[in-house]
Structure formats: C-alpha cells, structure tokens
TrEMBL record, chain A:
UniProt-listed CDD domains: ABC_PotA_N
Organism of provenance: Oceanibacterium hippocampi
Family of this protein: Belongs to the ABC transporter superfamily. Spermidine/putrescine importer (TC 3.A.1.11.1) family.
Record keywords: ATP-binding, Cell membrane, Hydrolase, Membrane, Nucleotide-binding, Translocase, Transport
Cell membrane is among the record's keywords: yes
Xref: Pfam families: ABC_tran, TOBE_2
GO molecular function: ABC-type putrescine transporter activity; ATP binding; ATP hydrolysis activity
Subunit structure: The complex is composed of two ATP-binding proteins (PotA), two transmembrane proteins (PotB and PotC) and a solute-binding protein (PotD).
Protein name from the UniProt record: Spermidine/putrescine import ATP-binding protein PotA
PANTHER family in alphabetical order: SPERMIDINE/PUTRESCINE IMPORT ATP-BINDING PROTEIN POTA, SPERMIDINE_PUTRESCINE IMPORT ATP-BINDING PROTEIN POTA
EC number: 7.6.2.11
Reaction(s) the record says it catalyses: ATP + H2O + polyamine-[polyamine-binding protein]Side 1 = ADP + phosphate + polyamineSide 2 + [polyamine-binding protein]Side 1
Highest classification ranks of the organism: Bacteria, Pseudomonadati, Pseudomonadota, Alphaproteobacteria, Sneathiellales
Cross-referenced Gene3D superfamilies: 2.40.50.100, Nucleic acid-binding proteins, P-loop containing nucleotide triphosphate hydrolases
From TrEMBL, chain B:
Compartments in which it is found: Cell inner membrane; Cell membrane
Listed Gene3D superfamilies: MetI-like (1.10.3720.10)
SUPFAM superfamilies referenced in this protein's UniProt entry, alphabetically: MetI-like
Protein known as: Spermidine/putrescine transport system permease protein PotC
GO process annotations (BP): transmembrane transport
Domain ABC transmembrane type-1: 71-266
Function: Required for the activity of the bacterial periplasmic transport system of putrescine and spermidine.
GO (cellular component) term, any one: plasma membrane
Originating organism: Oceanibacterium hippocampi
InterPro entries noted in UniProt: Bact_Polyamine_Transport, MetI-like, MetI-like_sf
Domain of life of the source: Bacteria
Pfam families: BPD_transp_1 (PF00528)
Membrane topology value: Multi-pass membrane protein
C-alpha cells in the first residue's frame, strides 16, 4: 500500500506551514517521514540541502510536538524541557538556563518542579511545546497538537503558537484536519487528499482560488455549478452557467479550461436580489445562525445553492420559504475548478 | 417505564448468600495459618496441645545451627536466583514486546513460560539426571546447580509482570525520546527502564518468594549438606515434630509478608 504518492513540497525557512487534510490523507505519514520515525521507500527529504531521508530521528535537527504530548511521566516539567539539550550533551548550567527561559516563553514558570500528571491538559500542551522548542530545532513538527483541548483553549493556543513561531523564528510544520485552524495560523497551506498534495498556497489563495472540487469543498462552504466554456483567450474565459447567463471570468495563473467545467461560488459572495439576478430559483429553507443567515435555494435547473447573509441590526425577516428568489454575484467570485 | 423504575440495578453484593460464602472462604483460608502462628508460641512440646505462652521455640530455632545454615542458604539462593531470573526475564520481555511481531512469537511465549506448564516433578528429575552427568564430567560441586535450577523456574514469574508493564507502556514516549536526540541506549536507560522499574521490582519479588518456597526441585537437585529452609522442614517432619517448626514457618510467613508489603510501599504512586 502506498500512503504518499508523488508528494513534492518545498517549505521555506521561518515559515508556518500547514499540512491540511482529512484523516487518512497521508499528512501524518509525511510528518513521520520528516521526523525520521518512518523511512521512505523512495524519494528524498532535504533539510537545508542535506539529505536526511535515512538518518535516525536522534540525528535530525527536527523536534515533534505529539498529539498525545508524550511527556515523560517520571520527570518534572523542567526535566522534560531539558531532556533534549541533555541528550545533546550540553552542560548542566545551560540545560537549566534554557529550561527556565522556555518556561518563561510558555508562561509556566511556577510549575517547573511539578510532575506532568499534576498539571492540566492545556499546561501539558505548553510543556510539550517548550520541550520541543528547547533544543532550537531547525524545524518543529506539530501533529494535531490542539485536538485534545476544548474550544476556548484551542483558540488561545492558536494565537500562542503563532506568537511562538514568530518569536523563535523556527520553521513550523503543522498537521491538522481543522480548516479553521489552518486558515488562522498558516503562512502557507498544503491541502492533501488520498496521499497527494492537491494545492499549496496562502490561506487566501486556497480559500479564494481553490484548485479543484475537493479543496473548494474541504475548506469552507461552497456552491458548485456546472458550466460550459464558450471561448477562451489565455486566462480570459467566457463560459455559460448550466442554469444561467454567460459570464466572463479570469483564471488563476497556469490554469486553462475547456469543454464542461465545474465552477464554485462561496455562499458569502452571492446575495439575494429582487431584480438583475443571474440565477433564479425557489427559497427552500432559512437557517438563522446568529451572525449570519443561510438561505437555501433550489435553482430552476434543479441544483441546490446557498446564500449567506451577514445579519445587521436593522435587517428584517421578510422572506418566506417557498418564495421565488433571484441570486446575484460578481463575475470575479466565480472560480473555475480543475477537473 | 415507571413500572420498572422501582427495580434496583443488579449488584453481586445483594446476591443471597454472597456474604456467607465470602466469610466461609476467608475462614478456610486463614484458620490454618492463624492456628500455625498461635501454636508457635506454645510453651509445651506438642504441636496440638496448648500449654501456655512462650517464646522458647523461637529461641530454639534461632539457636539451631541447622536452621541458621538452611536459612542463610535459602536467602542467598533466593537473592541470586531472583537477580538472574529478573535480568533474563527483562531481556526476554523486551525481546518479545519491542520487536515487530514475527512468526513463532507465540511459540517463544510458550517456551519462556514452560516451567509453569511442565509438571515440577518432571523438571526435577530431568535436572537431577543432567546435573549428575555434568558433575561426573567436570567434578564441579557447589551451590551453582541450585542457583541455575531456581533461576530457570523463576523466569516466568519474573517475566509476566515485566511484560505486562511493557505492553501497557505508551510507545510514543520512546519515540519522543528518540526525537529529542536520545540514542537507542539512552532511550532505554532514561525512559524505558525507569518506567519499567515497578514491573521489574514486582517480578524480582515474586521470583524471590517463589524461590524461597520451593521444595520439589530443590529436594532433587541439592547435594548432601545443601538444605534450604523448606527441605530442612520437610526432613524434620520425618522425625519428632515440635512447635519449633511452627516458629520457623511463622518466620518464613513474616518474611513473605514483609517482601510483599515493601513492594506495595515502593511502587505506590506518591500523591
């Protein structure tokens, strides 16, 4: 069985890079290969130009924050943090100083002599981070480290992680299946599925210009429509939506389109319009979500379409389910997807 | 649903007769031991007729040169056997849990635990014959044979708690150590061994008690003048029985209880 198939990723120095994908997509396998816990059958892993593919984990300047934290239960917080430097043969005074500095960095000074089972999950998370950062690795790997925390703590740690990354200047490779986490923290994201990297880009590029149907669907909510390419001139394309008008769109770089294609429109990029609508349909359902309201529309062509509207103080609820509605959007919010 | 709401959930403690059965079991278990201990303080010289309180049989046993000799031999033998057995069992446990499962692993489990399954008397006879051959061939005499025999049958008792501990250990901890620049030896020394220690201690203490208690194999393997405490006591039964045997038994019981209590004290988590 092949867990990774033709994966080629270049991660820049001092970057917060995220591997994003559903479980079983190969992101953890890739992480274990970088850490050295598994050996690749083919291909190479370069760290600053040096081939590390077959080095054992203890000879790589790469440290890991494990999903389960994996703190040593027979050592104190400070001993855990100093372990890496101790194994590197650093003098005792340096080990102690670095451990203290790391404790300060993650704001845990008072807990330095506690046992690891006497501190909370969020604190264990910080100790795991400090322990992995203490030896100043060239790359820090984070394997879904926030998944065991509750919502509020997770939000805090997202900001904390970003702060630690910019303060230490260490390259972070973060693995997650949570798209929101990925969008919040990353400089760049690689979206993975079934052992392949589907798209690499900044959070904005990935969200605004998803490469294909999987990426568009996995990150955020999206409406998919069928379309036919009428004419194309370089990146300028004219296409006709299956149940609507002809529109002109611009393709992202290195993309071409012909024949039948799928296009994506984000729900918040569309609006309900009484007239001048591009698409027409019937309102099926109104879902009130506090900040937003979702309007579920059945288009005349049969497809489902969702429009998201931000709620304002003065917005009144006039529409009723079953009413005929029109949907409008700007041509540049239409994204042509790769087949 | 209200009809069924009245029913109390099932609990084994409310089963009719449960308390009675439990009490009967405890009485059957402890009556002989209590009797043994009580009669060890008997002032008379019969083991079944109470004639008043006295410590004379403890004094007698303490001053009995044969008992002293057998006791020291038993303790030395148990210490050596449990040391060797625990070392071997630790290596065996690491070899059967820290490797990729391979064909024949189950067969190896069975072979390690062989002393638990083969009738002890068969092992005893086999060792008697083997050691006789070796003694004739080499002329070597001494306690080596008893140490070897005890080590062999103590291995499974040391192996089982160590393996249980290893299997319950989070493998990610060893991965984490390697990730933090620990070589395989450092990982073993700094992470695996300290976490394994309660298991090793449990194994060693179990092996110690098992060795201290053995009669059958010791009786077959020992040479003249190599009495251990149990074989000495067995020999005494063929002659006149006095409460001295109760006193020795009680002392042996006390040693076992101390070893087991020590184990609980040492392995208890500080809270």
């Amino acid at each position: 069985m092949q867990a990774l198939d033709d994966v080629s990723v270049t991660i820049r120095e001092n970057e917060f890079f995220t591997l994003l994908g559903p479980s079983g997509c190969g992101k953890t396998t890739l992480l274990r290969l970088i850490a050295g816990f598994d050996q690749p059958t083919r291909g190479t892993i370069l760290l600053q130009g040096q081939d590390i593919s077959h080095l054992p984990p203890y000879q790589r300047s790469v440290n890991t924050v494990f999903q389960s934290y994996a703190l040593f239960p027979h050592m104190t917080v400070a001993e855990n943090i100093g372990f890496g430097l101790e194994m590197l043969g650093k003098p005792k005074s340096e080990v102690r100083e670095t451990a203290d500095r790391m404790l300060k960095l993650v704001r845990m000074e008072e807990l330095r002599d506690r046992r690891t089972d006497q501190i909370s999950g969020g604190q264990q998370q910080r100790v795991a981070l400090a322990r992995a950062l203490a030896p100043r690795p060239k790359v820090l790997l984070l394997d879904e480290p926030l998944s065991a925390l509750d919502y509020k703590l997770r939000k805090e740690m997202q900001i904390e992680l970003k702060r630690l990354q910019s303060e230490t200047g260490i390259t972070f490779i973060f693995v997650t299946h949570d798209q929101e986490e990925a969008l919040t923290m990353s400089d760049r994201i690689a979206v993975m599925h079934a052992g392949k990297v589907l798209q690499i880009g900044s959070p904005r590029e990935i969200y605004d210009h998803p490469a294909d149907r999987f990426v568009a669907d996995f990150i955020g909510d999206t409406n998919f429509l069928m379309a036919e390419v009428l004419a194309s001139d370089g990146r300028q394309v004219r296409l006709r939506l299956a149940s609507g008008p002809e529109i002109a769109v611009e393709l992202p770089e290195n993309r071409s389109a012909s024949g039948r294609v799928t296009v994506a429109i984000r729900p918040e990029h569309a609006r309900l319009a009484p007239d001048g609508a591009a698409l027409n349909g019937t309102l099926e359902n109104i879902v009130y979500l506090g900040t937003d309201t979702h309007y579920h529309v059945r288009l005349d062509g049969g497809e489902a379409f969702v429009v998201r509207n931000q709620n304002r103080r003065d917005s009144t609820e006039a529409l009723q389910a079953g009413a005929p509605v029109g949907i409008a959007f700007e041509p540049d919010s239409v994204q042509v997807l790769r087949d | 649903m209200a009809l069924f709401g009245q029913r109390r959930p099932f609990s084994i403690r409310r089963l009719p007769g449960f308390t009675m059965i439990a009490i009967t079991c405890f009485v059957l278990l402890y009556t002989p031991i209590v009797t043994l201990v009580v009669y060890s303080f008997n002032a008379g010289k019969y083991i079944a007729i109470w004639e008043g309180f006295s410590l004379q049989w403890y004094v007698a046993a303490w001053n009995n040169a044969a008992v002293q000799d057998a006791t020291i031999r038993s303790l030395v033998l148990a210490a050596l056997a449990s040391l060797f057995a625990t070392t071997l069992a630790t290596m065996a446990a690491l070899g059967t849990t820290r490797v990729k499962p391979f064909r024949g692993l189950t067969a190896i489990y069975a072979m390690i635990n062989q002393p638990l399954m083969v009738p002890e008397i068969v092992t005893a006879v086999a060792l008697l014959i083997l050691f006789a051959v070796i003694k004739v061939a080499t002329g070597v005499q001494g306690l080596y044979y008893l140490v070897a025999a005890h080590t062999a049958f103590c291995i499974p008792f040391a192996y089982l708690p160590i393996r249980a501990r290893l299997e319950g250990m989070d493998l990610t901890l060893e991965t984490a150590a390697a990730d933090l620049y620990a070589t395989p030896w450092q990982t073993f020394r700094r992470v695996t061994l300290p976490l394994l220690f309660p298991g090793i201690l449990a194994g060693a203490m179990l092996a110690f008690v098992i060795s201290l208690d053995d009669v059958v194999i010791t009786e077959f393997v020992k040479s003249a003048g190599q009495e251990t405490l149990p074989t000495y006591m067995l020999g005494q039964l063929r002659r006149v029985i006095t409460p001295e045997i109760n006193a020795i038994s009680t002392a042996l019981l006390a040693i076992s209880i101390i070893v087991v209590s020590l184990f609980f004290v040492i392995t208890r988590k500080p809270s």
